[in-house]
Design brief:
The protein is an all-alpha fold. It has a single domain, classed as Farnesyl Diphosphate Synthase (Orthogonal Bundle), CATH 1.10.600. 78% of the residues lie in helices and 0% in strands. The chain is globular and about 55 Å long. The chain starts with 12 loop residues before the first helix and ends with a helix.
Length: 305
């Protein structure tokens, strides 16, 4: 007779509490943010290699990158826990509800980054590990502590942290950072403002309540949407320059043009009608756009072999 799995309510109390605690720590790392960072890393590795890199190297870079990003997000939540309780979107985070102690969260975030550095330096190289650590330091000290509470340009400059994984992927394979890596860095860098401002449009009242000077709060919705349109055009233009630094095939060029036109059109629709539900749809599409663009880089590399 097959073994029957126990019902959730049949799990011992201590186990339930342990699983609940693990879940809360995982929430601190913001897994959905990590997913997108990793999607930009692997195609950079494939392009650098001109094919599929060693699977062990890919695994180490992905795990290390996930740990570092999760640690950075955890430290970000530790720093912003007082403001998070003022925003509807974040008031249920573990540090706000008290399910995780602040000291435990801070130690957890630091440990994740230490483990990430050791893993990447031991399997890849020092340059890739240093770039990974620099992303965390930039995100925590430059973006979270310095820029985010002080200037509407916070996400413009702070977006560099989210673009560094492209450099990490390239460096892990070649132990250098060449021109194609910088183009991919620029693609993510210029994509970040319209992506994040779409979220800020949807949750404008939250950011205003928490006194975060996001562009839609400080300059108004009309200005923010015009800036989003301008940055979306720049993203597409930059994506089309990748072929100037490394060979790309017609597949990549066609996809970059088609997706880019769609991306710009979405921003233009927001300029004309900056309705919150339209903004959050653009936010979701921007995720799909960047992911599809980088997946195409990888596929195009294999097709050209």
């Amino acid at each position: 007779m097959p073994e029957v799995l126990p019902r959730p309510d049949a799990v011992p109390g201590g186990t339930r509490r342990l699983l609940a605690t693990v879940r809360e720590f995982v929430i601190l790392t913001k897994p959905r943010v990590i997913e997108l960072l990793l999607i930009t890393t692997v195609p950079a590795m494939i392009l650098a290699q001109g094919g599929l890199p060693d699977l062990g190297l890919i695994a180490a870079v992905l795990v290390g990158g996930a740990l570092a990003a999760g640690g950075a997000n955890t430290i970000n939540s530790w720093i912003e826990r007082d403001r998070d309780q003022l925003m509807r979107r974040t008031r249920n985070r573990p540090l706000v509800t008290g399910t995780i102690r602040p000291t435990s969260a801070l130690v957890f975030g630091i440990v994740l980054n230490v483990v990430a550095f050791v893993l990447i330096v031991s399997v890849a190289n020092l340059l890739a590990a240093a770039l990974t650590m620099s992303a965390t330091l930039f995100y925590v000290f430059v973006y979270t502590i310095w820029l985010k509470p002080r200037t509407a340009q916070n996400i413009v400059i702070g977006g560099a942290a989210g673009a560094i994984p492209t450099l990490v992927g390239w460096a892990a394979v070649t132990n250098t950072v060449a021109a194609p890596a910088w183009v991919m860095f620029a693609m993510v860098f210029f994509w970040t403002p319209p992506h994040f401002w779409a979220l800020a449009l949807r949750y404008r009242e939250d950011y205003e309540a928490a006194d975060f000077p996001m562009l839609p709060v400080t300059r108004g919705i009309a200005v923010a949407t015009r800036h989003m349109l301008a940055y979306s055009v720049v993203v597409v233009a930059v994506s089309l320059t990748l072929g100037l630094t490394t060979p790309v095939g017609p597949l990549y060029l066609v996809v970059a043009v088609v997706l880019g036109a769609w991306f710009v059109a979405g921003a233009l629709r927001l300029v004309r009608d900056p309705e919150p539900t339209r903004a959050i749809k653009y936010f979701a599409f921007s995720n799909a756009y960047l992911a599809a663009l980088f997946v195409t880089i990888a596929v195009d590399t294999f097709v050209r072999r």
